[in-house]
Design goal:
The complex is a heterodimer of chains A (299) and B (536).
Chain A: H1 17-40, H2 47-74, H3 80-119, H4 126-132, H5 146-150, H6 165-188, H7 192-224, H8 231-263, H9 273-298
Chain B: E1 3-4, H1 18-22, H2 27-33, H3 37-65, H4 76-111, H5 119-138, H6 166-193, H7 206-237, H8 251-268, H9 271-285, H10 292-305, H11 321-349, H12 358-381, H13 383-389, H14 393-423, H15 429-455, H16 470-498, E2 534-535
Helix pairs in contact in B: 3-4, 3-5, 3-16, 4-5, 4-6, 4-14, 5-6, 6-7, 7-8, 7-9, 7-10, 9-11, 9-12, 9-14, 10-11, 11-12, 12-14, 12-15, 14-15, 15-16
The chains are: A mainly alpha (299), B mainly alpha (536).
């Protein structure tokens, strides 16, 4: 390869944002830890305020850091090679997110295919069932937990059906992936109206999803007695949908930021890493939902 | 590998960029705000060393208590906190950051890159760590003490029976995990995207290869650890029952999730060591590495196999026999690629023109002692045998042979090998030899008898023991104190090196050293390869 093809790789000079970010994470960790203890053990303390200070500082850090990045990008400091670094970095970050969800899906599969049948006496566990959890029957969704089986003998919760809200939500998110894709196509073909309208529509669809998800949670708690602590069915349901919901919320915020950057004309048909990263993230969140809809709601 | 390298001294650059090459920031803020891979590498290495001494001090408490049978120095609950935090600090605070520090220093210089791919994120990854460990160490002083459930934090020890400080443990693991993931993403992207023209994959030094694969493992499993601690948090504080049979969960499920992270984690702590030894042995044998390609494939095989062997940590939990067989055979298969590596190192030395400088001494000690640890691992892989050995000091002996005489010795070998390149001065060789021989003797006095007491049935993680183990434990403790003291020699040596006391060295430093990092000046200039070298 010839030397003259090489564009200088931009190595930023010192930056204040990483240390601000480290302090923010410190405050978040200390604050969250203490807040969890204080709120569940009826103690008083400052955990909540420390946590909030950390979150505010994190937002300040992200804003400042991204502002630097945007300024550098707009002033042409970035080479093709740097663009590849960002794209690869984002792709690997999404892979790490996939593995995070994999842990919770793994817990779901393990509970359904191993721990619940074993508690019900299958394999060589007949006496486990007989002696410890007499009367417990392995079912999914697990509405009568082993503890229920030996106390009331009645189910303590109802299952969340896949029809209704979850089905609408699936349609909404799938549609939002399509609209975002064509917004991206609009950006690449320099069709500004298509870009803005479809990106705006994606944000609206995402926001409706979040609202419906909140309604579903209210419905679960109020009408179905399906709560975070109602056995491993409720545990996996709320942690999987909850972490997914947090990711949709973050994705929507990213899309809103991208919308304003599009309004300002930050992106060109060729140079739009931030848009691409946000779009990848959204599609990833969408795929997780499809998995969720299938494994948590339908099966 | 023949290279046409631009000797990129700070003064050689032209144009308006020259001013910040001359100007290396001074004072504390240089280290706090830096985006330079060498500064960040130094920070990681110092942090790892300090944590090594802190975790080592806890090991001294453990060995002092176990010096004699009976309870004498600390109460059992504090003993449990010491074993737990010693393990957490050595794994997450010492070994992993030391390897990350080496990656920071070396990977860009080895592949001809100007810096890490994402320099600001690099700084963030590092500076999270001191705060994470501040939280972990701080939790020791909370009501009810710090984590006392073993570094593996098995449920229900970490859920039903733990103190409230578990919440801080969980969030501290969360942020150190974030740090590891960001560090790993940086390494992967640097290697995939920042290689100089002509630096094809199969020309990369093995340290770079092993780190590429290690970083992949990190990105794949650190999020699973985050999931595990999250479930511990919700089980303990929010009434979920992932690990509680009453709600349909299973404490054994915790072990599955934890070891799905934990076993690849074991290789995260040894693969970079393989890369280091593969760099040092050829240099002091004055021969090319034997079987370069097979080394690469062996590393990749070990990494892939590491995802399907996790339950060999759980043979005594009552898994179905078919599962025990599967995990036993999968585990034993790993000895094939590992054997390839040991064979290749020995074959590299075969008929080489050997010399025994300090890095080579550590490397040879690594090969012999790591192999001992590997062989005891093979014994533990056999299900019926493991029923006997499980949770005894035999296991403790096994993993300390692979982690101390394996990972830690490789890190020391690496420091001695590249330190002259970093400082431009040869370290104090007399002190280094004292450090080596004291460590070598004491580490074996420390860990070898653990095999015997383990086989005789002494359980791990207990502050007291039956009288028949008394003599061996006395010697183990003496070995432990001696090994701890030996590391102070290393501390003195490193401080002297950082003060740049010593004879100046040449660019190549070691007579047989090959690779890009040996073609730039010693000490390595603050910025290397702002324009990439061309590798032919």
């Amino acid at each position: 390869m010839a030397q003259e093809q090489y564009e200088k790789y931009y190595v930023p000079e010192q930056s204040v944002w990483p240390i601000v970010g480290a302090v923010a994470l410190f405050l978040i960790a200390v604050g969250a830890g203490n807040f969890v203890i204080e709120s569940t053990r009826d103690k008083s303390g400052y955990g909540f305020y420390v946590l909030m200070t950390g979150l505010v500082l994190l937002i300040v850090m992200i804003t400042g850091w991204f502002k630097n990045q945007i300024d550098e990008s707009m002033s042409g400091l970035y080479s093709q090679q740097l663009g590849r670094s960002y794209r690869q970095g984002m792709a690997w970050f999404i892979f790490s997110e996939v593995m995070f969800f994999a842990a919770f899906f793994g817990a779901l599969f393990y509970a359904r295919t191993i721990s619940i049948p074993w508690l019900g006496g299958s394999s060589n566990n007949a006496s486990t069932n007989d002696v410890l959890w007499n009367g417990f029957q392995a079912t999914w969704p697990l509405l009568t937990t082993p503890a229920d089986a030996i106390t009331t003998g009645e189910p303590s919760t109802q299952a969340m059906p896949w029809t209704g809200l979850p089905l609408y939500n699936t349609a909404l998110l799938l549609a939002s992936s399509v609209t975002l894709h064509y917004a991206h196509v609009g950006l690449e073909k320099a069709k500004r109206t298509q870009l803005l309208v479809l990106l705006g529509l994606t944000i609206v669809l995402g926001s409706i999803f979040i609202a419906l998800q909140m309604m579903e949670y209210v419905h679960a708690y109020r009408d179905l007695d399906l709560t975070l602590d109602s056995g491993v069915y409720g545990n996996t349901f709320f942690l999987l949908t909850g972490f997914h919901g947090m990711h949709v919320t973050l994705g929507t915020i990213i899309l809103i930021v991208l919308f304003f950057r599009c309004l300002k004309g930050h992106f060109t048909p060729k140079e739009h890493f931030a848009f691409q990263a946000g779009s990848w993230y959204w599609h990833f969140v969408d795929v997780v939902w499809v998995m969720l809809f299938f494994f948590v709601y339908i099966l | 590998m023949s290279t046409e390298t631009i000797h990129d001294t700070p003064a050689s650059d032209d144009g308006h960029d020259a001013h910040h090459d001359h100007h290396i920031p001074k004072g504390l803020m240089r280290w706090v705000l830096t985006t330079n891979h060498k500064d960040i590498g130094t920070l990681y290495l110092w942090f790892a060393f300090i944590m090594f001494l802190v975790g080592g001090a806890m090991a001294m408490v453990i060995r002092a208590e176990l010096f004699q049978p009976g309870l004498q120095i600390v109460d059992p609950h504090f003993f449990n906190q010491m074993t737990t935090v010693h393990g957490l600090i050595m794994v997450f605070g010492a070994v992993m950051p030391a390897f990350t520090g080496l990656a920071n220093w070396l990977v860009p210089m080895m592949i001809g890159a100007p810096d890490m791919a994402l320099p600001r994120m690099n700084n963030w990854s590092f500076w999270i760590l001191p705060f994470a460990f501040l939280i972990l160490l701080g939790s020791l002083f909370m009501d009810g003490g710090g984590p006392a459930f073993g570094w593996t934090f098995y449920a229900p020890l970490s859920t039903t029976y733990s103190g409230d400080s578990t919440a801080l443990f969980v969030f501290s693991v969360h942020i150190m995990g974030a740090s590891s993931i960001m560090g790993a993403i940086n390494v992967v992207v640097t290697i995939l995207n920042m290689r100089a023209p002509g630096m094809t994959y199969m020309k990369m030094p093995l340290f770079v290869w092993t780190w590429l694969i290690t970083a992949f493992l990190l990105i794949a499993v650190m999020p699973v650890l985050a999931g595990a601690v999250t479930m511990v948090l919700t089980d303990k504080f929010f009434g979920t029952s992932f690990f509680d049979a009453a709600g349909g969960g299973d404490p054994v499920m915790f072990q599955h999730i934890f070891w799905f992270f934990g076993h690849p984690e074991v290789y995260i702590m040894i693969l970079p060591a393989f890369g280091i030894i593969s760099a040092i042995v050829p240099t002091f044998s004055r021969k090319k590495l034997f079987g370069y390609a097979s080394m690469v494939y062996a590393t990749a095989s070990i990494a892939l196999l590491s995802f399907i062997v996790w339950a060999h940590h759980m043979f005594t939990t009552g898994m179905p026999v078919a599962a025990e067989m599967f995990f036993m055979f999968a585990t034993m298969i790993i000895s094939v690629p590992t054997g390839v590596k040991v064979f290749n190192w020995v074959a590299t030395m075969w008929r080489g023109s050997l010399s025994f400088e300090v890095p080579m001494m550590f490397a040879i000690a690594f090969i012999v002692l790591f192999t001992i640890g590997g062989l005891s691992g093979l014994m533990l892989a056999i299900v019926p045998v493991d029923f006997q050995y499980h949770d005894t000091y035999f296991v403790v002996a096994h993993f300390h042979y692979v982690l101390v005489t394996g990972a830690v010795f490789s890190i020391m070998a690496a420091v001695y090998y590249w330190l002259p390149k970093w400082t431009g001065k040869m370290f104090d060789i007399t002190l280094a030899k004292w450090h080596f021989w004291c460590s070598l003797v004491s580490v074996n006095v420390l860990f070898f008898p653990m095999h015997f007491v383990g086989l005789a049935g002494m359980p791990r993680r207990i502050p007291d023991y039956a009288l028949q183990f008394a003599d061996f434990n006395k010697w183990i403790s003496i070995g432990g104190f001696a090994f701890g003291l030996s590391q102070l020699i290393f501390l003195v040596l490193i401080i002297k090196a950082c003060k740049k006391i010593g004879e100046p060295v040449s660019d190549q430093v070691w007579e047989g050293a090959e690779g890009l990092e040996w073609e730039i000046p010693s000490p390595a200039p603050y910025h290397t390869f702002e324009t990439p070298p061309v590798i032919k």
